[in-house]
Design brief:
The complex is a heterotrimer. Chain A is α+β, with helices and mostly antiparallel strands. Chain A has 16 helices and 21 strands. Helices cover 30% and strands 19% of the residues of chain A. The chains are: A alpha+beta, B mainly alpha, C mainly alpha. At the A-C interface, helix 1, helix 8 and helix 14 of A face helix 2, helix 3, helix 5, helix 7 and helix 8 of C.
Chain lengths: 534, 307, 313
C-alpha cells in the first residue's frame, strides 16, 4: 500500500470523527477498476460531430454514435451497422440493409428513417457528402431496415464516404435529433454506439463521462479501427481535461489518470523510464505540418516567390522544432501525401530535397519582384505545433532577406483572420501555419487543403488547373494504378504551383499505465477492446 | 562657551574651565549628502545598486557575451548549460543566456512603466476622490467597475484587437492597477482628512492645492511608494502570467515571462529553461522591494532614527 | 450606516451597466470569430457565415446588446455558443472549486500572514524581522506557476502525500476536498501571504511609533494586548484595503493555479471562453465578477468604519 493510501486512511479515520460520515469518494475499489480515465488532446467543449468538426469532438462522438461503415486498419471500408448492400449495374442505385438488433440509447430501435435523416444532415456539411448531394436523385427509407440512395451519376467512392474517419463522420442519430439544422447544435446526445454520454456529469472543458451501453450488439468480427466488433471491456470512461502537459505527465506517473492521448515528445523519455508506463506511437499515419501562403496578394501571388521559400525551407528545422530530438518521430516529406500509404508519392519533390540553397532562393525571390514590403505572418501562440512552426518561419524569412511582420495571436483570431481576402495592410495576411492529420491526407477524397480551385479552395486560395484536373482524374479512376498515376501528377503540379508548403511528416506518441491493455494504433483513440486490471 | 576637556595643560588664570565630564553621548557622525544618505539607509543602497546592475545588464546586453537571442538552431535544442551555452538552449535551440539578458529589457520596462504610470494616475484619481466629496461616489464606482474586469481579459482583447506587443501589455496591466492605487490613496486621504492639523490648515484659510501639497501628499507618499514597488514587481509577474496563457509579449521579443512560459512544459526534465529567468526575476523583484522598503523608511520622518 | 449601505447597493446598478457595456463592446470589436473556431479547419467561408447566422452574430450591435441586456434583467445569462448549455448552469458547475480555492487561500493567508507581520513589526530590526521579510520578498517574487510546479513535484510526485491534480467536491468528504486544494492554496497563497505580511508590518510599524502605544506601554499593558488590541486595530485600515484588493489578485492567480492543477473552476472557464470567443460565457462571468467585487468593496468600506471610527460617510 502506498503512502498516500495510508495517509488517506488515517485522515479518513480522523475525519470520520469530525464529519460523522464517510470520507472516501463514492466509487469502491472494484468500481474504480472498471473506470478508464483518459486525458484527451484538447478540451471537449461541445459535442455535435457534424456541427463542430474538431478532432476531439469526432473522437468522443465515435464512442457515442455508430456508423454505417467503418474504415479498418488496411484503409478499407467495412460494414458496421449495415448488414448488406447492393448497387445496381449502372452504379446509380445503392440499396442498404441494416443489421438486426440495433438500438439507440433510449431503447428505441434504429430504423431507416433515422439513417435517412442522419445522412441528410451529414451530407450538408461533409465535402464528399456534398458531392453526393449534387448528384442525388433521392435518399429514402424503403422499409424499417432498408434504405435506398439513388444517384444521377455513379459514385464509386460511396462506401469510403460512409466509412471514412475524417470529420464529419456519418454518425447515425435518432431522426428527431438529426432533423436539427446542420448549422445549429443538436440539443441531445442520444446515440447508437457502444457508450452512453452522461450529460448530467459533463463539465465542459473539464470532464466528460461515458457509460457502457449494455444493449449494444457488437459485430462478430475482430475490431479494427472503426470496423469490427466494438466490445467495451470497461464500464465507464472519464475524459479528464488537463491543459498543462507537465501536470498531465505527473498525473500519469502518479496513477491519477490511466491513458494520455498526446504526451509531448520532450516528456516521453521520463515516461518511458517509469516501470508502470507504456509509450508507443499513437498513429502510424501521423501528421503533416504545413504553412500556407496567400496566393491573392504580393509577394506570394507570384509563383517564383513561393518557390523561393520552398527552396530555402529546411524540413529538418521545422520537424525538430515541433517534435524534438527523437529522429524516429519525423520524416522529410517531399510531397503532400502520407508516407506508407498506397498513394504516397515523391514525384516532383526535388525542390524540398537536398542541401538548402539560400543564394539561389534569394535570386529567385528577387526575380519575382519582391522589394522589401512587409510579409504579415499570423501565428497562433496557444497551439504548440503552430507556435513552433511560426518561430522557425520567422527565422527562415529573415534569412531570406524578407521583412517579417510577425503577428502573435491565438487560434481563434487566426481562424477568422485567415478568412479575410483583403490585402495584408487592410486586415489580410500573407502566411499562416497549420497541420493536418495524416489520415486526412491519404487521398484527395476529403483533402480540402490540396484543392486549388481558387475562390472555393481552402484559405490561401491557390489556383492550379493542373491540380484540379488530377483530382477529377482520381475520382474517376477505376484501378489502383490509375489512382497512383493521377496522384503522382497531382503531387508534381501541387509542388510546382506551391498549393501549400509541407513542413514535414511527424508522429506523436501515446502513453498509458501498464495496467491498461488493448490500446491500438490508429488515427483516433479507440476505446473498444481496452481493459483495465486493478 | 564652556568646553569640556581632559587636557591637563596649563590654563591661563582667569579662564573658567568646567570639570571633565564622562562622555555620555558618543559623537554622532552626521553624514551628509547622497553618500551619507546611502550609508544611513543600507537597504536603499543594496536595493538600488542591485536594480541598477540589472538595468545596466539590460542596456548593455549586446556587449556581455551574448548572441542574437532570436537565432534558432533546432539541431541544438534543449542542451544543458555548458561552456558554449552558459545557461543552455531552449526548445528551438536559442541561447538562454542571451535571451535572459535581453529579456531584462522587456521585463524591466514593463515593470517600471506600469509602476510609474499607474502610480501617477492612481494618485491623481485618489486625491480627487478623497478630497472632492461629491466626486468620491462616482469615481469610486467607476474604479470598482474597472477593477472587476479581469486584466487578463483586457490584455487578450487588446492583443486580439491589434497584436501582442510590449505596449499593449503595459497598457493592460496599468489599467488594471490604477484602481488599486487610487483606493489606497483614497483610504489614506480619508483618514488624514479628519486629522486636526488638516482642520487647522483649512481653518487658517489654506487653499486646497496647498493642503494637498503640504499635508496630504507627504503622508501618502510613503504608502504609495511601497505600493509602487509592489506594482512594479507584480507587473513583471503579471507579464509572465499573461505569457503563460499566450497573451503577453510576442515570442520574437524575449522576456522573462515568455521564456518561462515556453519552458514550463519541460521543467521536470529541463529545469534550467525556467530556472534562470525565474532567478533573474526573483532577484529583480527583491531589489525593487528592498529599494521600496528602504525609501519608505527613509522618507518617514518618524522613522528617521533608522533601523 | 444603513442608508449608506442602501445607497451603495443602489449605486452598483450603474457600475454594472458600465461594465456590461464596456465588456460587450470590447468583445464586439475584438476580431476572432467563434463561428470560425466552431466550423473547424475544413469549413468553407460560406459554412462559417451560416454558423454565424445560426448564432445570431450577424445582427447589428445595438440589437445584440439590447437582447442581451433584456435577458439579463430576467435572470437569463444566455447560452454558451459552444456547449449549448445555459451560462448560469456552467457558472454554477464551476463556482464551487474556485470559491473553495479562494476561501481556503484567504483563510490560510490571514492566519499566517497577519501574525507574521505583527511579529516582524514588533521585533523590527532584529534577525526575526529580517528573516520574515526576506522570506516574504522571496515568496512574492516567484510566479505562481513555478511555485505550483515545485510543490506538485515535491509533495505529490516525489513524496506522494497529495494528489497532483483534480478537484473533489465537498459533498464527497472533507479530507478528499481538502487534499486536492492544499497544494493549489499554498501556491496561490504564497504571493498573497507575502503581500499581507509586508503591509501588516509596514502599517504596524507606523502605529507602533504613535504616542498612544507609548502610553499603553507606560501604563504597563502586556505586549500581547498592546499588539493585538491597540495596535492592530489602528493598523487595520490599509491591511483590510489590501486584503480586499488582493481578492483581485486571487482571481488572477486562480486562473493559473487552476490550469496547473487541473481544477475545473471559473478561472479556466474564463480563459477557455476568451480563447474561443464564447461571448455569452465571457459576459456572464465578467458580470458575476463585477458583482463580487462590488460586494467585497462594500464589505471593505463597512469594515473601515468598524475598525476606525474616525472614518465616516
Amino acid at each position: 500500500m502506498d503512502r498516500r493510501t495510508v495517509l488517506k486512511g488515517l485522515a479518513g479515520a480522523g475525519s470520520l470523527a469530525v464529519t460523522g460520515g464517510l470520507s472516501m469518494p463514492a466509487l469502491s475499489q472494484g468500481a474504480a477498476a472498471r473506470t478508464l480515465r483518459f486525458v484527451p488532446q484538447a478540451n471537449l467543449a461541445n459535442f455535435d460531430p457534424v456541427w463542430g468538426t474538431q478532432y476531439v469532438v469526432r473522437n468522443a462522438a465515435a464512442l457515442v454514435w455508430d456508423t454505417l461503415y467503418g474504415i479498418d486498419a488496411t484503409l478499407q471500408p467495412q460494414r458496421q451497422m449495415v448488414l448488406s448492400e447492393e448497387v445496381s449495374d449502372d452504379g446509380l442505385i445503392w440499396t442498404f440493409r441494416l443489421r438486426p438488433g440495433l438500438k439507440f440509447h433510449d431503447g428505441e430501435p434504429v430504423l431507416s428513417k433515422d439513417v435517412v435523416a442522419s445522412l441528410a444532415r451529414w451530407s450538408a456539411r461533409d465535402p464528399m457528402g456534398l458531392m453526393l448531394r449534387a448528384i442525388q436523385n433521392e435518399l429514402t427509407a424503403v422499409d424499417d431496415k432498408t434504405f435506398k440512395w439513388s444517384l444521377k451519376a455513379p459514385y464509386p467512392k460511396m462506401l469510403l464516404a460512409l466509412a471514412k474517419n475524417n470529420s464529419p463522420c456519418s454518425f447515425i442519430m435518432p431522426e428527431r435529433i438529426a432533423q436539427t439544422d446542420p448549422f445549429k447544435q443538436i440539443p441531445d446526445y442520444i446515440g447508437s454506439g457502444p457508450m452512453k454520454f452522461a450529460k448530467s456529469e459533463w463539465v465542459p472543458g473539464a470532464k466528460a463521462v461515458f457509460e457502457k451501453f449494455t444493449d449494444y450488439t457488437p459485430r462478430q468480427e475482430k475490431a479494427s479501427w472503426l470496423a469490427g466488433g466494438k466490445q467495451m471491456l470497461v464500464d465507464r470512461v472519464e475524459w479528464v481535461v488537463i491543459p498543462d502537459p507537465a501536470t498531465a505527465a505527473a498525473a500519469l506517473q502518479n496513477g491519477e489518470v490511466d491513458w494520455w492521448e498526446s504526451p509531448i515528445p520532450d516528456l516521453v523519455p521520463t515516461l518511458k523510464k517509469n516501470r508502470n508506463i507504456g509509450v508507443d506511437i499513437a498513429d502510424p499515419l501521423g501528421n503533416i505540418g504545413a504553412f500556407r501562403m496567400n496566393h491573392l496578394h504580393p509577394p506570394f501571388n507570384d509563383v517564383k516567390a513561393r518557390r523561393a521559400v520552398l527552396m530555402a525551407l529546411s524540413q529538418e528545422d521545422y520537424m525538430r522544432a515541433v517534435v524534438g530530438d527523437d529522429t524516429a518521430l519525423w520524416k522529410p516529406l517531399p510531397g503532400f501525401f502520407t508516407p506508407d500509404t498506397p498513394l504516397y508519392t515523391e514525384e516532383g519533390g526535388e525542390i524540398l530535397k537536398g542541401k538548402r540553397d539560400f543564394d539561389a532562393a534569394k535570386k529567385l525571390l528577387a526575380e519575382s519582384g519582391y522589394s522589401g514590403q512587409p510579409v504579415t505572418c499570423i501565428v497562433a501562440q496557444d497551439q504548440p505545433i503552430t507556435k513552433a512552426q511560426g518561430d522557425v518561419t520567422a527565422d527562415l524569412l529573415k534569412r531570406l532577406g524578407m521583412n517579417v511582420d510577425f503577428v502573435a495571436t491565438d487560434w481563434g483570431t487566426v481562424g477568422s483572420r485567415r478568412a479575410q481576402k483583403t490585402p495584408p495592410g487592410q486586415g489580410g495576411w500573407q502566411m499562416f501555419h497549420s497541420w493536418h492529420a495524416g489520415a486526412d491526407c491519404i487521398n484527395p477524397a476529403a483533402y480540402t487543403a490540396i484543392r486549388a480551385n481558387g475562390d472555393k479552395a481552402w484559405f490561401g486560395w491557390p489556383t492550379s488547373p493542373a491540380v484540379e484536373k488530377e483530382v477529377t482524374n482520381w475520382f474517376d479512376a477505376k484501378s489502383l494504378d490509375d489512382e497512383k498515376a493521377a496522384v503522382g501528377r497531382l503531387n508534381r503540379a501541387a509542388l510546382e504551383d506551391v498549393v501549400y508548403a509541407p513542413t514535414g511528416f511527424f508522429l506523436t506518441y501515446t502513453a498509458w499505465r501498464k495496467n491498461i491493455a488493448g490500446i491500438a494504433k490508429g488515427p483516433l483513440p479507440f476505446f473498444w477492446g481496452v481493459s483495465k486490471t486493478a | 562657551m564652556t568646553v569640556s576637556t581632559t587636557s591637563t595643560a596649563l590654563v591661563p588664570p582667569g579662564l573658567v574651565v568646567a570639570p571633565h565630564l564622562p562622555d555620555l553621548l558618543l559623537p554622532v557622525a552626521i553624514r551628509r549628502g547622497v553618500l551619507g544618505f546611502l550609508r544611513n539607509h543600507p537597504t536603499v543602497a543594496i536595493g538600488g545598486a542591485l536594480l541598477l546592475c540589472l538595468v545596466l545588464v539590460g542596456i548593455f546586453a549586446p556587449f556581455l557575451g551574448t548572441v542574437d537571442p532570436t537565432a534558432l538552431a533546432p539541431a541544438k535544442r534543449t542542451r544543458a548549460p555548458s561552456a558554449d551555452f552558459w545557461f543552455g538552449t531552449d526548445m528551438l535551440g536559442r541561447d538562454i543566456y542571451s535571451r535572459v539578458l535581453y529579456g531584462a529589457r522587456v521585463s524591466l520596462t514593463v515593470g517600471l512603466s506600469v509602476a510609474a504610470l499607474a502610480s501617477l494616475a492612481g494618485l491623481a484619481i485618489g486625491l480627487v476622490s478623497g478630497f472632492v466629496r461629491w466626486a468620491d461616489g462616482i469615481v469610486m464606482r467607476f474604479m470598482d467597475g474597472l477593477m472587476s474586469i479581469p486584466p487578463i481579459l483586457l490584455a487578450v482583447a487588446l492583443m486580439a484587437l491589434t497584436r501582442g506587443s510590449v505596449g499593449n501589455v503595459i497598457l493592460a496591466i496599468t489599467v488594471a492597477e490604477i484602481p488599486r492605487v487610487s483606493r489606497l490613496v483614497r483610504s489614506v486621504v480619508l483618514s488624514l482628512r479628519e486629522q486636526p492639523y488638516v482642520d487647522a490648515a483649512v481653518a487658517s484659510g489654506t487653499r486646497t492645492p496647498m493642503i494637498i501639497l503640504r499635508h496630504i501628499l507627504p503622508n501618502t507618499l510613503a504608502p504609495m511608494l511601497v505600493q509602487a514597488t509592489y506594482i512594479c514587481a507584480s507587473a513583471m509577474i503579471v507579464e509572465s502570467i499573461l505569457s503563460f496563457i499566450g497573451a503577453g509579449t510576442p515570442p520574437t521579443i524575449p522576456s522573462w515571462g515568455n521564456i518561462m512560459a515556453e519552458g514550463r512544459a519541460l521543467w521536470q526534465v529541463k529545469p534550467y529553461i525556467v530556472f534562470f529567468p525565474a532567478a533573474f526575476l526573483s532577484v529583480t523583484v527583491l531589489a525593487v522591494n528592498l529599494l521600496g522598503d528602504g525609501l519608505r523608511d527613509a522618507l518617514d520622518p518618524r522613522m528617521a532614527k533608522g533601523l | 450606516m444603513v442608508s449608506y449601505i442602501l445607497r451603495r447597493v443602489l449605486s452598483t446598478v450603474p457600475v454594472m451597466a458600465i461594465v456590461a457595456l464596456f465588456v460587450f463592446s470590447l468583445l464586439y470589436i475584438a476580431p476572432g470569430d467563434p463561428a470560425a473556431v466552431i466550423a473547424g479547419d475544413q469549413a468553407s467561408p460560406a459554412d462559417v457565415e451560416r454558423i454565424r447566422e445560426g448564432l445570431g452574430l450577424d445582427r447589428p450591435f445595438l440589437v445584440q446588446f439590447g437582447t442581451w441586456l433584456w435577458r439579463i434583467l430576467h435572470g437569463d445569462l444566455g447560452t454558451s455558443i459552444f456547449t449549448n448549455l445555459p451560462v448560469s448552469a456552467l457558472i454554477a458547475q464551476r463556482i464551487e472549486p474556485t470559491l473553495s480555492l479562494m476561501v481556503l487561500t484567504l483563510v490560510l493567508t490571514i492566519l499566517v500572514a497577519v501574525p507574521l507581520g505583527v511579529v516582524a513589526a514588533w521585533k523590527a530590526g532584529s534577525w526575526v524581522d529580517r528573516t520574515i521579510m526576506a522570506f516574504a520578498v522571496f515568496a512574492f517574487s516567484l510566479p505562481v506557476f513555478v511555485v505550483g510546479y515545485v510543490l506538485a513535484y515535491v509533495f505529490a510526485l516525489q513524496l506522494d502525500w497529495l494528489p497532483v491534480q483534480g478537484y473533489t467536491p465537498l459533498a464527497e468528504g472533507f479530507w478528499p476536498w481538502l487534499q486536492n486544494l492544499i497544494l493549489p492554496a499554498l501556491a496561490l497563497g504564497c504571493v498573497y501571504i507575502a503581500l499581507i505580511a509586508r503591509i501588516t508590518r509596514a502599517s504596524m510599524l507606523e502605529v507602533l511609533q504613535q504616542d498612544y502605544i507609548r502610553t499603553a506601554r507606560a501604563k504597563g499593558l502586556d505586549q500581547r494586548s498592546i499588539l493585538f488590541v491597540h495596535a492592530l486595530k489602528n493598523a487595520a485600515v490599509p491591511i483590510i484595503t489590501v486584503i480586499g484588493i488582493g481578492v483581485a489578485l486571487l482571481i488572477g492567480g486562480a486562473v493559473v493555479t487552476e490550469s496547473v492543477f487541473a481544477i475545473p473552476g471559473l478561472g479556466r472557464l474564463t480563459i477557455d471562453a476568451i480563447l474561443r470567443r464564447d461571448y455569452p460565457v465571457i459576459q456572464g462571468i465578467v458580470l458575476m465578477f463585477s458583482f463580487l467585487y462590488v460586494l467585497v468593496n462594500l464589505m471593505v468600506d463597512v469594515t473601515y468604519t468598524l475598525v476606525d471610527p474616525r472614518i465616516r460617510y
